[in-house]
């Protein structure tokens, strides 16, 4: 199947199918968070990967970064209206996972549970050009 940049499904998949991307959006769906909070909730993500994903989501206009003039500086991330529009997709994935895959968890961040590991969202095979 060829990648079609005019196909809405292809265009959306190009943005959200990166590893960790949907989990970042899931974690920001409830409220704004600091980098360290996201890093804690996404067990297994490297700081570099988290930084790259957040930057890509900012460039797409899905996440906004707010820096507060404090010492030390405080930075928080939040979903924009464009990013919030993906929350129903995540809710549908949660319902699908419960119904068809037997996943009964509540998808809350794993910050307090060292044994819990957030599953990685694996990108589908690259679209052929």
From TrEMBL:
Keywords: DNA-binding, Transcription, Transcription regulation
Signal peptide: none
Stretches assigned to the HTH hxlR-type domain: 7-105
InterPro entries (alphabetical): ArsR-like_HTH, HTH_HxlR, WH-like_DNA-bd_sf, WH_DNA-bd_sf
Gene3D superfamilies: Winged helix-like DNA-binding domain superfamily/Winged helix DNA-binding domain
Pfam assignment, any one: HxlR
Name listed for the protein in its UniProt record: Helix-turn-helix domain-containing protein
